[in-house]
Amino acid sequence: MVDIDDIKEYAKGALKQYMFPVGLIVFQCIFIILYGVHADYGLRKVEVTNQTEGVSHNTPPPVGDVEFYYSFFQDVHVMMFIGFGFLMTFLRRYSFSSVSFNFLIAAFVVEWAILVHGYIFTWNSITRTFPVNVKTLLQADFVCASVLISFGAVLGKTNPAQLVVLALIEVVIQVWNEYIGIEIFCVYDAGESIYVHVFGAYFGLAASYALQRRQTVESEKESSSYASDIFSMIGTLFLFCFWPSFNAGIAYGDGRLRAIVNTYVSISASVILTFTISALVGRGKKEIIHIQNATLA
């Protein structure tokens, strides 16, 4: 005789076990359909220009210009997958989770962010499409950075399924927040300090507060080890090296030059000051957690 309770328990266990991979497959199928129906290559159009007019180096580049954006896109891409991935290994009990979950969430967010950004920023109501070019990929990486910053606040408290849900929600809110800031309030943020860093930090804190079940100030799970600190420093060094590209990614002309030079000089000074303050506060002993994070401020 078939026991109904056993069937219910088996179905519940199977649902719990296979819900995450099935959900990812469903999302991928949805993405494929949306890309196939509404996405279009942002190919450069042949434009006839007046050769007698001089072209200033401060003229905005053609949208989607591979030569102009791709090198910076590469740098920012490395920051997302390697820099943030290894930076999150500072917790010894979640080192593997941080790298692997970062890999998954970053790839998922890039796909989702391209769609959301296209529908909100570059939607063409006549052709009912939006362009996908190198600049679009770069902007998707910026959205990804915001999500990964929030990921650092909930590290160890969430499973992959919860991270995917948070990413789905945060990408939509982040892109709309940037759209309102740029299109309505005319706030241009070349280094993405407001739309990426501040937004990601506050969203992560809000998500962490919503997920906490008890008032815990300190936990044993927050401890680090020698190996986890070393791997985290690798992430810090990657982020340090490519941070000028992040700040200058969408800038051009004199603005791009200033972004690169100012970022490089200021972040170098930040390293010196961090070591100095850490030694003073620690009475001669430098704290690795200060170096991992404050050097990037």
From TrEMBL:
Protein name: Ammonium transporter AmtB-like domain-containing protein
Transmembrane portions of the chain: 18-37, 68-91, 103-124, 136-156, 163-182, 194-211, 231-253, 259-281
Chief location category: membrane
Cellular component annotations (GO), alphabetically ordered: plasma membrane
Family classification: Belongs to the ammonium transporter (TC 2.A.49) family. Rh subfamily.
Keywords: Membrane, Transmembrane, Transmembrane helix
Localization annotation: Membrane
One family name in Pfam for this protein: Ammonium_transp
Bilayer disposition of the protein: Multi-pass membrane protein
GO biological process terms held by the UniProt record: ammonium homeostasis
InterPro entries tied to this protein: Ammonium/urea_transptr, NH4_transpt_AmtB-like_dom, RhesusRHD
Residue ranges of domain Ammonium transporter AmtB-like in the record: 68-297
GO terms of molecular function: ammonium channel activity
Keyword Transmembrane helix set for record: yes
Domain of life: Eukaryota
Organism expressing this protein natively: Rotaria sordida
